[in-house]
Design goal:
Layout: H1 8-16, E1 37-38, E2 46-47, E3 55-59, H2 60-66, H3 71-75, E4 81-84, E5 93-96, E6 104-108, E7 111-112, E8 130-137, H4 141-144, E9 151-157, H5 160-163, E10 170-179, E11 184-195, E12 198-208, E13 212-213, E14 219-220, E15 226-236, E16 242-258, E17 269-285, E18 295-312, E19 318-336, E20 342-361, E21 364-365, E22 372-387, E23 390-404, E24 411-424, E25 430-441, H6 445-449, E26 452-458, E27 464-469, E28 477-491, E29 499-519, E30 523-544, E31 548-561, E32 575-584, E33 589-598, E34 620-629, E35 639-646, E36 673-681
Parallel strand pairs: 6-9, 27-30
Antiparallel strand pairs: 1-2, 3-8, 4-5, 6-7, 8-9, 10-11, 10-36, 11-12, 12-15, 13-14, 15-16, 16-17, 17-18, 18-19, 19-20, 20-21, 20-22, 22-23, 23-24, 24-25, 25-28, 26-27, 28-29, 29-30, 30-31, 31-32, 32-33, 33-34, 34-35, 35-36
Length: 682
């Protein structure tokens, strides 16, 4: 089959299966994403809008409307959050409240995504297979250990229940999408079953196209990956309240791309193959006869391997970059009452992980990504105490980590991470809260141990190179965040059965021992040089009724380097996002649009080597439209048709997070993109 014919395979299969499909349509409910239940904020099930922590849930319906092609498509409407890096989907990295890189912890189905190897990206996922994304803003090391200075992003993939309609034992889905910008085809399919206490799902997605075009009509080079992802999961419920499941996700990416993939460098181009495979084994037991046992355990392994054969210059250089992460987590929540009018949820747990990395260049060790290992183990306890309208949540975690590399000095350290919050349900609709949390990030292995050539300084009269200097004395970065906020909830606001949720928060996050890259004429070294402060305000609102829905998000951030008096780099500009939609239930149509207003960002630090001030990032306004048609009855009832237009006005804009240098990029962000998807579930 030719490459051009492949995209029509799924659509043809759907049409052939049409007579066998059921004529059912999902019911509507006046629930906002802030009504969604999440475990990300406290490790116990909580309603997102009632937690004394800013957590946002992006549900499957919103993901389907957005038809995201990359991480920024998912995150950009969330207050204080966006993705930095170029419009290359595989190298975008999340930022939460001005903190990025591995200062944000990322999980995919509970598996840590710890990869970090010099401009090559952080984690690799398939948007077509997601069921939900949770974003927790603010330090969260008490719950998750190292890496959660900025917050946590938890991505969850499809479950069998997402494919199987009520009363059935099997379910199937097929989907074919197309993006006009880049001519990208997005294909996916899956099957699921439930029988005799067992359930399972098998899904596949393929994503392939050409280079993207920016708002000025210019081709953005090396933005044309081809990806294939396979996901399988099997679950067993042997007893009431007990579940055992195992899963695997395998991803393959092929692309010609710069070695420094999240930059516009075009002098060092490689043919890159990326393979990532993660395995999970989960156990959960909550026997109905007692509330003292709610036990959850997870064992996982995550392997990332990148092979790059340099083609510009075509010198035969071949680099290999691998990271193996193995992890284990165990926790139990006991729910009880001591005096009759109090309610307790005591969670005690342990988790740990080991990262082992290796870098090769033509078979020899590559000092820029040295062979090294890091082990992190933590114990934590959290008490959620409810007395009348008050909820006090307090927790403490102890972590110990050790890093080592052959021939270099090992490093070990430990850290206590407390967290406490108090929420008060003043009335049914008003809940103010206060919180304080600390977090830390252990230096990653490359920061501690990398060596070798960074870049050439001169060729004549003799070669001179800038070289990496290892620094095994790095201290962990730490943050202390104080926050005050309010959660508001209303019912029957404009009509019977509607729902309105609001959340506002003020915070101050003080970061110490910030690790920065110090580049001199001949050396590059990582040092703990910065004390920083990030202040912010965030507002979130969501309205839902039978026919109408609306979302709003706004954030104002300011970051200052307290060590030198300059602004922090990579602080996102102030932004406001608005979404409005209308359902036409009799026709099965949903119509709406999104607007994002982003202010100018001119608070940027001067370049350390030249003293120059980077140019300001101009303000911009984006508008998207979306249309969904899911026939409520008739032979087309199993089908869903999604049409979207991103960046309707083809605006020329740059995000502040990848426009921070003195030398401005020659390209803008992605221009207008018309998206279409036809999918079926039967």
């Amino acid at each position: 089959m030719s490459g051009s014919a492949r995209p029509w395979l799924l659509a043809t299969t759907m049409l052939a299966a049409l007579p066998a499909m059921a004529q059912e349509s999902p019911p509507s409910a006046a629930l906002t994403p802030l009504d969604a239940v999440t475990t990300t904020a406290t490790r116990t099930p909580q309603v997102a809008g009632d937690v004394a922590a800013p957590v946002t849930v992006v549900p499957r319906e919103e993901l389907r409307r957005r038809q995201p092609g990359n991480l920024n498509d998912i995150l950009r409407d969330i207050p204080g959050v966006e993705a930095d890096g170029l419009p290359r989907a595989s190298v975008q990295q999340p930022q939460i409240r001005g903190l990025g890189d591995d200062r944000v912890l990322i999980q995919l189905d509970g598996v840590r995504q710890n990869f970090n190897a010099g401009h090559r990206g952080r984690f690799f996922f398939e948007p077509e297979l997601l069921r939900e994304v949770d974003v927790l803003r603010g330090p969260a090391s008490m719950l998750y250990g190292s890496g959660a200075l900025g917050g946590v992003i938890a991505l969850r993939t499809l479950e069998a229940e997402d494919l199987i309609r009520p009363g059935r034992a099997t379910g199937f889905f097929l989907s074919q999408g197309y993006d006009s910008n880049g001519g990208r085809w997005r294909s996916s399919a899956g099957a699921a079953f439930q029988a005799g206490g067992f359930d399972g799902i098998l899904a596949y997605a393929r994503n392939a196209g050409n280079n993207l075009t920016d708002g000025a009509g210019r081709t953005i080079p090396y933005t044309d990956p081809t990806t294939n992802t396979v996901m399988a999961r099997l679950g067993w419920n042997p007893l009431p309240g007990m579940r055992i499941s195992a899963g695997v996700i395998h991803r393959d990416e092929q692309q010609v791309i710069p070695v420094a993939a999240n930059t516009f460098d075009a002098t060092n181009i490689a043919d890159r193959t990326l393979r990532g495979t993660q395995y999970t084994l989960n156990f959960a037991w909550a026997p109905p006869a007692t509330r003292l046992v709610d036990l959850r355990a997870s064992l996982y392994r995550n392997d990332i391997a990148i092979t790059e054969t340099r083609i510009l210059p075509n010198d035969g250089r071949r680099d290999g970059t691998t990271l193996e992460t193995m992890g284990l987590s165990l926790q139990n929540t006991s729910r009880f009452s001591l005096l009759g009018w109090d309610r307790h949820a005591l969670t005690i747990g342990f988790d740990g992980h080991r990262d082992e990395q290796a870098g090769r260049r033509n078979g020899a060790e590559r000092g820029q990504y040295p062979d090294a290992r890091q082990e992190v183990f933590g114990f934590f306890a959290q008490e959620e105490l409810n007395i009348g309208p008050a909820t006090l949540t307090a927790g403490l975690r102890y972590d110990s980590y050790e890093s080592s590399a052959p021939g270099q000095r090992s490093q070990s350290n430990d850290r206590l991470s407390p967290r406490v919050s108090l929420a008060w349900r003043v009335t049914d609709w008003l809940q103010p809260y206060l919180s304080y949390a600390e977090a830390y990030r252990a230096p990653n292995l490359t920061q501690l141990y990398n060596f070798g050539v960074h870049f050439p300084v001169a060729v004549t009269p003799r070669p001179v190179f800038n070289v990496f200097v290892p620094n095994p004395n790095l201290r962990p970065e730490t943050s202390r965040n104080a926050e005050m906020g309010v959660n508001l909830r209303f019912r029957d606001v404009l009509e019977d059965g509607d729902s309105l949720r609001l959340r506002a928060a003020l915070f101050r996050n003080n970061v110490s021992d910030f690790i920065e890259t110090i580049v001199t004429a001949t050396t590059t070294e990582q040092r703990n040089v910065t004390r920083a402060r990030i202040d912010g305000f965030e507002l979130e609102g969501q309205y839902e009724s039978r026919l109408w829905f609306a979302r709003a998000g706004a954030s104002i951030l300011r970051g200052d380097n307290l060590s030198n008096g300059q602004p922090l780099s990579l602080i996102p500009a102030h932004k406001l996002s608005l979404t409005l939609g209308r359902r036409f239930l009799e026709q099965g149509v949903t119509l709406g649009g999104r607007v994002q207003l982003v202010a100018e960002q001119d608070r940027k630090p001067r370049d350390l080597s030249t003293g120059q001030l980077p140019p300001r990032t101009a303000p911009y306004a984006l508008m998207d439209l979306f249309l969904t048609w899911q026939p409520p009855e008739g032979p087309l009832a199993p089908f869903r048709f999604d049409l979207g237009v991103a960046n309707l006005a083809d605006v020329r804009y740059r995000r502040a997070s990848w426009d921070a240098g003195v030398t401005r990029s020659a390209f803008y962000d992605v221009g207008r993109n018309v998206q279409f998807r036809i999918s079926a579930q039967f």
